[in-house]
Amino acid sequence: xxxxGELASYAGVTVRAVRHYHAKGLxxxxxxxxxxxxxxxxxxxxxxIRIRILAEAGVPLARVRELLRxxxxxxxAAVAEIxxxxxxxxxxxxxxxxxxxxxxxxxxxxxxxxxxxxxDRLRALGIDERIVRAERDGWIPLVTHSPARVxxxxxxxxxxxxxxxxxxxxxTLSRALDRPDxxxxxxELADELAAYITRMADERGExxxxxxxxEAPLVTxxxxxxxxxxxxxxxxxxxxxxxxxTGWTKLERVVPTPGVSPG
Length: 263
Hints:
Layout: H1 4-11, H2 15-23, H3 42-56, H4 61-69, H5 72-103, H6 113-124, H7 129-145, H8 150-160, H9 164-176, H10 184-204, H11 206-209, H12 216-229, H13 232-241, E1 245-246, E2 252-253
Antiparallel strand pairs: 1-2
Helix pairs in contact: 1-3, 3-4, 6-7, 7-12, 9-10, 10-13
């Protein structure tokens, strides 16, 4: 016969846990012997181990009480059900672990592989990480809002960065990121960008350069993300408007400011 301390030790729980299970009616509390001690038999050890395992598996104590009273078939079926639930939880936790592991790489947490590949291509071309980050931050709400159009937009982006003229513009912008708003190089960049957009519109049609088709609040959000990450972009858009185009996320043709060269 075992003391409560020995019972707890053999079952891998604390004495406090044993008393808790007594209070919940899960484990019968034996009468005291002539010495005033409660003594437990081997069956109590088995019952206590079963209680511990079920409780550790997340089974509510009320359900544990039912299972301890169940027949062998009912108990086996209930255990199989619990095991299935635990396996589902493990798979879900594994998915969470995979997402957390991807968090270290930044881009892949919220973006599909094709967008991540595009961003990696920008980096490989030598474009400043701040510009890449602005692109990434813009893609995140875009992918969430219109996942069905991602393939189309990525194909367009890949086509655009195959054009040395646009790559050259981004490389020049990379070097101008730390310049003040009144730096003359930004004016040259606005000329280059306006000329490029105008050529694309003439060659491919204005739908080619204005094909985002998303609500104005989302456009504003994406523009703000870009301007916060790449501050010269805001001044660049002001200069671009003087040259007949406006917008960062969504380009639109406007009447240019009189007396300003389109580049």
